[in-house]
Design goal:
Blueprint lengths: L10 H9 L1 H9 L8 H19 L7 H16 L2 H5 L4 H21 L6 E13 L2 E12 L5 E7 L6 H22 L5 E6 L4 E5 L3 H24 L27 H7 L6
Parallel strand pairs: 3-4
Antiparallel strand pairs: 1-2, 2-3, 4-5
Helix pairs in contact: 1-2, 1-7, 3-4, 3-6, 4-6
The structure holds iron/sulfur cluster (SF4).
Iron/sulfur cluster binds next to helix 2.
Length: 271
């Protein structure tokens, strides 16, 4: 008996499979519930604040104060949501989390002036086919530059990756360029990653070659996933990421039993 294939691939699923096939299986195939973590809650709050800055505030009024105001609203909404409560933070930890989200929003304003950005979409969900494979991604922000060309922006709230990881991240952004080309009929002139913590921006120009590379790499990963599902063979790949893994207790690399994960964590959730 083989395992069911995921219905689509996204940039995060692609990097999850490359990072650790077993963690990918728990998340994308077994669909085990993933408890919220301080860094996911933080990322969501900052993304929400920047999304609303472009959605709610007209150009010319997108000041730092306006950005911090949107962050305040994001925090107000989050207080009524279960994810924040599930973290069970002490008042001091909550203050630290809050201060860190503010630091990240301030970092954004050091990278660009939002009054000079013409955003045509935020949190834009796009889907396209690559052969019989469905690709899916959410673009943080899609802009039009002064020459009328598309620019994709992806916000990052984590640290700037090392050189090897940077290549992986840039491979991920070509995924967004591919989706734009397929769905909107236009290849973006540029894709930029804004690392809000440092703050630092890394950008790349999609080309025929990078689009071809994206197609080949994604197809190869899909073949590897199909094979792993057919053979039920998803191996652990221990790395620094294990520290943040939700399933360490069920990982053979840490003496756990993967078969116990579904038993203990419950039935798969529909995504
Ligand atoms: S603990 Fe590490 S090796 Fe094990 S599943 Fe998680 S990421 Fe993979």
């Amino acid at each position: 008996m083989s395992l069911p294939l995921p219905t689509a691939l996204s940039p995060s699923k692609v990097s999850s499979f490359k990072d650790c096939a077993l963690a990918f299986r728990f998340s994308a195939i077994d669909r085990l519930p993933e408890p919220p973590s301080p860094w996911t809650v933080k990322g969501n709050l900052v993304h929400r604040a920047l999304e609303q800055l472009f959605w709610q505030v007209p150009a010319g009024q997108r000041s730092l104060d306006a950005g911090l105001g949107q962050l305040e609203r994001a925090w107000e909404s989050a207080r009524g949501e279960p994810e924040l409560g599930a973290l069970e933070l002490t008042p001091v930890e909550m203050d630290e989390l809050r201060a860190d989200t503010e630091r990240l929003v301030r970092g954004y304003f050091e990278l660009e002036d939002p009054d000079r950005v013409t955003a045509v979409g935020v949190e834009l969900a796009l889907e396209a086919d690559l052969g019989d494979l469905r690709l899916r991604g959410v673009i943080d922000r899609l802009d039009v530059d002064p020459d009328g060309r598309l620019v994709v922006t992806d916000y990052k709230t984590g640290r700037v990756p090392g050189q090897a990881q940077e290549q992986l991240r840039l491979a991920g952004v070509h995924f967004y360029a591919f989706l734009c080309e397929q769905v909107l009929g236009e290849r973006p002139a540029r894709v930029q990653l804004l690392y809000l913590r440092e703050p630092m921006s890394i950008s790349t120009v999609p080309s025929d070659q990078s689009m071809q590379g994206l197609r080949q790499r994604t197809s190869a990963i899909w073949s590897a996933i199909e094979r792993a599902c057919r053979l039920e063979d998803f191996r652990p790949k221990p790395s620094a990421l294990c520290e943040y893994c939700n399933w360490q207790a069920y990982c053979p690399a840490f003496g756990g039993d993967p078969a116990r994960a579904v038993e203990v964590l419950g039935q798969p959730t529909l995504v």
